[in-house]
Amino acid sequence: MSDQSINAAFPAPQGESMRALLAADRVGTLRQIAALSREYEGIVEANALVAVDDEHDPEGSSTAFERAHVAALLSQAREHLNDLDRALERLERGDYGRCEQCGEPIPTERLEVRPAAKTCVRCASESLRRRPFTG
Question: Which residue numbers delimit the Zinc finger DksA/TraR C4-type domain (predicted)?
């Protein structure tokens, strides 16, 4: 690995530290995806063996909720995996640690907590404020 593959914003040891943090998060996320996939498949298989009438079966609605909940968690985990992969690509390109909106450096403390972060706290906060309330 050449020195050019590590972000200029990070000294080589810190860049390697961030790479290790991203890789560890990626491994954990892959494990989470595998576990959630097994759980989802188990729910689907269990329901396939039972004639479920969601409208009249008191367990039907909770089973549907459980299936939807696990599917949502699985979707979030897959999205996080994609975010981690994009962060690793940014690290390779040399623009990891820079806010994608304003271009300012993202503080190391933020990256240590959220290694896949692509925005600084200020831009992330502004983005949240602009979102319409859907509750």
Answer: 94-126
